Amino acid sequence: MREHDIEPIRGLPGDLPAGEAILWQGTPDAQVFARSALGVRWIGGYFVALVGWALVGGTPLGALITAGFGVLAVGLAYGFALLVARSTVYTITNRRVVLRIGVALSKCINLPLVKLGGADLRNLGAGYGDIALSLDGPSMLGYAMLWPHARPFRLAKPQPMLRALPNAAEAAGILAKATAAIVPVQQRSEAAPAASATRPALGAKEAMA
Fold first, then answer.
1. 113 touches 125 (CB < 8 A)
2. What's the pLDDT tens digit per position in 104-128?
3. What is the C-alpha separation between 125 and 75, in angstroms, rounded?
4. 3-state class (DSSP) for residue 46
5. Strand pairing of 22-26 and 89-93?
6. What is the pLDDT of residues 122-145, one digit of tens each?
7. Is 1 a residue whose pLDDT tops 80?
8. In whole angstroms, what is the distance from residue 125 CA to residue 32 CA?
9. CB contact burial 22-49 (16+ within 10 A = b; e otherwise)
10. Buried b / exposed e across 172-189, counting CB within 10 Å, b at 16+?
11. What DSSP string describes 87-126?
């Protein structure tokens, strides 16, 4: 029996509280994850360059050995990507985003929607994409804890990332609507005067409309 077989709900650490509902669930695509998160194209290109260099300045045997290491490196990257895809579940509910991640040691990271400061969608082509989440206020999340589900190079303030999603734009839209739905009424009413204050003065015809 696998660890995930005992989950009360797939991708979640427990049953949903009253009033909470799942809006969307998804997993990374292994091939897209390998390309976008692990850089298998760069790895392959690097070893191709090494093989070319070995053929020019070395021996065929050295080029063959280098090519073997290249195939091994790319294979390991794709194997890891497959394990990540099988062990990862991203969940969006009407209250939080949950990342069930971890190949060797599974863990669930709960991100309340009220703490989300923003979400950035990166298009990877063919409908695939990454969604990086920025959090308001201090966070106990570390880059090593999130990797590879973390936005690259954001070490000081790590940003969780939903990686290599099929139909990423759809997931981003669902997340945006869910976040907007829980914004307190007070914050909306406070934002309204600010928006109206910056609106240009109405012309005579517009004012009468």
1. no
2. 888 999 999 999 989 999 999 999 9
3. 23
4. helix
5. antiparallel
6. 999 999 999 999 998 887 899 999
7. no
8. 10
9. eebbbbbbbebbbbbbbebeebeeebee
10. beebeebbeeeeeeeeee
11. H-EEEEESSEEEEEE-SSS-EEEEEEGGGEEEEEEEEEET
